[in-house]
Sequence to fold (128 residues):
Amino acid sequence: QVDLVESGGGSVQAGDSLRLSCAASGRYFGNYVMAWFRQAPGKERAFVAGVNWGPGRRKYADSVNGRFTISRDDAKNTVFLQMNSLEPEDTAGYYCAASSLIYRYGRSWYDETNYDYWGQGTQVIVSS
Fold:
């Protein structure tokens, strides 16, 4: 059974930083893309950032590029999302996801339907 467990969310002020963690277990993730999505109230879930376990290729949404950094700890099967200069618009539930389909079939990193596994989410609230 694959488990993705997020942690690190919370309530902060605009300009503050948070680091989210996603601990993955249950299988070998060497050929997976790991990503963070977020869903704000009343909006659809959207891609935030992604990284693949092998070469370490990274992608970011335009709205977070330069402020957020995705990284991984291979030894601990954990993916991190460092979020700096947080804005009220970053308020959302943040979800960790894993995909075996992106590299196998050449699918888009940005489409949530291409992800096999999801965590339960962690809430981030940014106040102005």
